[in-house]
Specification:
This protein is mostly helical and about 400 residues long. It is globular and about 100 Å long.
């Protein structure tokens, strides 16, 4: 999608070189530290003169946009870096052909985000703080409760991105075990797993170890088990784990067969996008009291980035790690995410990925994969009604003309 946003000289001159970011998957505050309430939160609980709580003002969309950024576009890059990368590309001295592969991925993150939320581009680039406030009132039909400036907006966008990622991580921490016990999964060696304690997972347990084992290694080889348990970083971020394949049915001579089509990944996708109560339902239908994340993010189809996000969340849920460290740690989940994205966005695999996404749409978002038959008169009731109406009008016109001839 071509982008037509402009940036002022002051905006562009302040942009620094974008660098890849590796934010933590599980963001938590230090124990004992009480979070200060924001003025927005305090205003939500104001008491009116009649002793009743005042009606809440409409909520700002920034955090919701951050949720969409995490689940549909890019969960691991700081929004400020995404924005700066785009602004940097607008400079006259910019040379996109010299960009690193990571910078190109981040630039695409901006394009995908603005393509998904078109109005977002204006809040980032086109307006002064005063114009932003007027635009806010025009788009959302109410006056902002806080100072409307880019720094605040980006901070809230980042907070929404982090809270979505953390919520999905925390939910899957317990539910991934139930998914492994599901009859549709052929997981073995489930004894010793604890739904609340992650240290029992990873390569320490036979079931999760088998799922996490790189396809290039043989988990049934005792020496491989010992090596992975002693040095978990032996499992490279660039090697597909066995849980990418249905029941671990990996064929070395045909790596494409079954890739990213495992039932476990389907369960995780449903849990995140269609609701925690839908993953165990064959048709994905359950009673939800509110819209699911796919609806809230206006996600009509499974995207390459959302599939990579599901793979990363499933990988972390199966591991023994409690937090995803920005630097160091036994496994770099951010690099793992981008390695999956690299495959899904590689032009050499465009046809295969298109078929893969069609398969996913039929499994988790079936309404998006059903063909429209509006032009098929044999099945379209409205088209049949119109045809009958036209036939009746023609008969009436013929009868009228015939009467006129007789007269």
């Amino acid at each position: 999608m071509p982008l037509s946003f402009s940036a002022s000289a002051s905006d562009l001159s302040s942009v620094s070189d974008p660098t890849p970011s590796t934010p933590s998957l599980n963001i938590s505050q230090s124990s004992g530290e009480k979070r200060a309430r924001s003025p927005v939160e305090d205003s939500d609980n104001e008491i009116g003169v009649n002793g009743r709580k005042k009606r809440k003002a409409p909520e700002e969309p920034w955090r919701d946009w951050g949720h969409t950024c995490a689940r549909v576009v890019d969960a691991f890059t700081d929004p400020q870096i995404i924005i700066n990368t785009y602004l940097k590309s607008l400079l006259p001295s910019a040379r996109p052909e010299m960009y690193t592969e990571q910078q190109k991925h981040i630039l695409k993150s901006y394009e995908l985000l603005v393509d998904h939320i078109p109005i977002l581009g204006k809040f980032i680039i086109d307006c002064s703080p005063t114009e932003l406030k007027e635009l806010y009132k025009e788009v959302f039909h109410f006056c902002p409760r806080t100072v409307c400036h880019r720094a605040y907006f980006v901070t809230q966008l980042k907070a929404g991105q982090g809270s979505a990622r953390q919520a999905d991580t925390n939910g899957l921490k317990t539910n991934i075990i139930d998914m492994m016990f599901h009859p549709d999964n052929a997981a073995q060696g489930l004894s010793g797993l604890d739904r609340k304690v992650k240290i029992t997972r990873g390569f320490h347990n036979d079931a999760t170890g088998r799922l996490l084992c790189p396809v290039t290694l043989d988990w049934d080889d005792d020496s491989v088990k010992e090596k992975l348990r002693a040095s978990p970083n032996t499992a490279s971020t660039s090697s597909w784990p066995m849980f990418f394949y249905p029941n671990g049915a990996y064929e070395p001579t045909d790596m494409e067969k079954g890739l990213l089509r495992s039932e476990l990944l389907v369960f995780v996708f449903k849990y995140i996008y269609t609701g925690p109560n839908t993953w165990s339902k064959p048709d994905g239908v359950a009673r939800n009291t509110r819209s699911c994340n796919a609806v809230l993010a206006q996600m009509e189809h499974v995207t390459a980035r959302s599939l990579a996000y599901v793979a990363a969340q499933a990988r972390f849920a199966l591991s023994s790690g409690e937090t995803n460290q920005k630097v160091g740690g036994p496994f770099d989940l951010t690099r793992f995410f981008w390695h999956v994205v690299k495959y899904l966005e590689d032009p050499d695999f465009e046809e295969e990925v298109s078929q893969l996404l069609d398969w996913w749409n039929s499994r988790v978002l079936p309404s998006s994969s059903q063909p429209d038959n509006f032009d098929d008169g044999a099945v379209d009731s409205l088209a049949q009604l119109k045809a009958q109406k036209a036939a009746k009008r023609a008969m009436l016109a013929n009868a009228t003309n015939h009467m006129r001839v007789i007269v």
